[in-house]
Amino acid sequence: MKAELLRFTFLSLGVICVVIGILGLVLPLIPGILTIFLGVYLITLTSSPFKEWFEKHITRYPKVHHHYKKNHEHMKGFFSLFKK
């Protein structure tokens, strides 16, 4: 139950961040690209098909892929705390 609630929370926050990031591309005070990246990262934590698609496309950029993998493994450990 806690894991599903956490998954829903991360997915919701990810979608909200992507929407705010898209608005930030037009509005001057909101950091657009950074917010979109944060939203996409949160969505990849909760959605396996999106994670596979994202990893397939991010391998073109080795430095970004390295940081993504390192942080993703760290967050998987965080999720395992709630799977009881």
Detailed description of the structure:
With about 80 residues, the chain is an all-alpha fold. It has a domain at about 45-84. It has helices spanning about 1-25, 30-45, 50-60, 60-80. Helix 1 runs antiparallel to helix 2 and helix 2 packs across helix 3. The longest helix has 23 residues, at about 1-25. The termini are close together. The model has no long low-confidence stretch (mean pLDDT about 80).
List the helices and strands and how they pair.
Elements: H1 2-24, H2 32-46, H3 48-58, H4 62-80
Tell me the strand percentage band.
Answer: under 5%
Give the count of helical stretches: 4
Question: What integer is the average pLDDT?
Answer: 82
In the predicted model, the low-confidence regions spanning at least 5 consecutive residues are: none
Major sheet size, sense and barrel closure: none
Percentage of helical residues? Answer: over 70%
Q: Gyration radius, to the nearest Å?
A: 14 Å
Order of helices and strands: HHHH
User: How widely separated are the two ends?
Assistant: 8 Å
Apparent shape: globular
Query: What structural category characterises the helix and strand content?
Result: mainly alpha
Strand runs, count: 0
